[in-house]
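Sequence and fold
=================
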Amino acid sequence: MRKTLSFAAFGVSMSLMAGCGSSVTPAAPSNNASTAVTVSNCGRDVTVNAVPRAAVGLSPSQTELLLRLGLAGSLVGQAQTATAPLPEDVAGQAAAIPVLSESGPPSREKLLSAKPDFVFSPTTYEFTAEKGFASLEQLRQSGVAAYVAAGGCAERRMNGTVEDLFTDLENLGRIFAVPDKAKALVDQGRADLAAVDKAVTGRPKPTVAQVFLEGATVTAIGAGIEYDIIRRAGGDNVFSPKDPQFAKFFAAQITPEALAEKNPDAIVFAVNGAAQKQASIDYLTRTFPAMTAVREQRLIAIDAADTYPGTLGNISVVREIAQRLHADAFTR
């Protein structure tokens, strides 16, 4: 079973771009200017002077993406491995990759001990110096290029979309000199989304509330990648960025009464394992017996890892939800 990450941790605070903390020894400059690649990321330029040979994926989603680009031989570390299992078809490739952390980001010392030249993270949270993680500035001083999934950038977290993943793939294709492999993943992803678009276009949109449940605490999702996932799946979000509670952050704690008042046709909720899934279903069934979503058994559990920025799960979960919202459109 996955170990549960707190909602705040994978949601990411909007102010985690600080670069404070202890200093590190600057790396010697490279003379490989002719092979340098620069990409824009989170409002800054990320430059690699040569194809990275010692990369670290700071979450299973990022490790998976690097593996699918054929970069197993270039990985010197993987992190937060207990938060989600790697898909079976690539898990074997990661067996020999050192594990730097299990349930949270690795400490600055642990990360730097792997001697990476490139670090790929789902969010800016993994670079919070105050929590003992290596900051973006510390990594830069140490000669390590750090790339954050586009949808996990602080300034993007409120309006990120599923297609931000394509930006990541294109950038990684350039950085690692594997543009053809990156393009193949982008083309497949666009085709998968197009197939869902074709199936749901023109159909009535069921109203959907997306929530995260911890015991009796209800957190609603009203913006960001999660919001776009519901839209792409042919759902009509009952919470939106236009609502006051989502003006500054993509999620907000709400009362059970507020959810009941929306009376959605379906409820989508993210879980970190079978136990949380069952507990969430039990809570919803017990608390909202008259709600349309409960009466019609449209309680849709999704893997929390599929909502993280920069993961192929952003695409697969669109189809997963669409199949529950528009079942007959996928059985013809």
User: Anything to note?
Assistant: Residues 199-330 form a domain with the Rossmann fold fold (CATH 3.40.50.1980).
